[in-house]
Amino acid sequence: MTFTYEALPMRVVFGTGSLRQLPQEASRLGLRRILVLSTPGRRALAERAGVLLGEAYAGLFAEARTHVPADLAEAARAAARATGADGCLAIGGGSSIGLGKAIALTTGLPVIGVPTTYAGSEMTPVWGLTDNGRKRTGRDRAVLPRSVVYDPELTLRLPVDTSVTSGFNAVAHAVEALYAPDASPIVSLMAEEGVRSLAAALPVVAADAGDLRARTDALRGAWLCGACLGATTMSLHHKLCHVLGGTFGLPHAAVHTVLLPYVAAFNLPAAPAAEQALRRALATDDVPGHLARAATELGAPRSLAELDLTEGDFDEIIAQAQARPYANPRPVTAEALRSLLTKALKGTLAP
Ligand code: NAD
Question: Which element (helix H / strand E) includes 274?
Fold first, then answer.
């Protein structure tokens, strides 16, 4: 067995109440003027974080939006300059973390991440920017948060529907990490355990959103799955989700949830070790069917039609998905893509 594994320099503070560690995390990094970033919906939480930061709180930019529009990134960089920030605190889901990364990309300002969804961006050196309806992504160590504070209490109010789709978003990172061209046994351990943890926790969260123990397990699973995303190269599933989110404006986590069983059904026959790991994690012999059933039982959207996609969009999706080559366990032909999209549009795994 030969493989390469490169550990990312991540510091993680995990546990109930760990938000209170923010001042220590800021001072460890030597930060004295921190710009706090959030979406409009997380403003109150961001202000709470600001109070905790005390004198190191330089200001709040609470306008983060999904897929980091390029003009918004510019406005956030201007806010960082105007407040004389020497670092950022990104609190919320992938939209807030993504905005922190966009600032770090051009300024090098260190980012502290406080994730409140299961998207996993805080664990990756991957940045994304959307301009003129096209989402660009890249990898740069400068955007990797220097410190990540996971506090399960902050996820207690994450609505059940968002919790479920965000959890599937995390599972998708692990699925693609298991068959990635740069997969390794170390990352595969994290992937399998991340899926196991989320698969067990999400039904409990769906039944009782305030179950702190299940929230803790889900966040731990999301951390592991995010680390998988950060450590490996993603394939067809993430490519399609970028196109559907970036160009067609489909909701990020929901589109991951809908597509995952279809991409799994397409790819897993060519990735036996990944399929075995997922069978163990999900305790099933039918991984795609299990994922589809779980999504249905947990009340998630099940078809691309529900997300307002139409067959008329397929040509553009296929063209964009094939524009640049990427690794995948199976060759991705236009025909195969059309067949996969047709099934996902209808929401049925049957041919
Ligand atoms: P999001 O950050 O847009 O959050 C979704 C909504 O949930 C927002 O309105 C937010 O205010 C709200 N919310 C967040 N936490 C909450 C909480 N605890 N309680 C109540 N409401 C809460 O969505 P997301 O799915 O977390 O992130 C999606 C974005 O992240 C996309 O742009 C995606 O491309 C990006 N992403 C990037 C990476 C990466 O590695 N670069 C990885 C995953 C996702």
Answer: helix 272-282
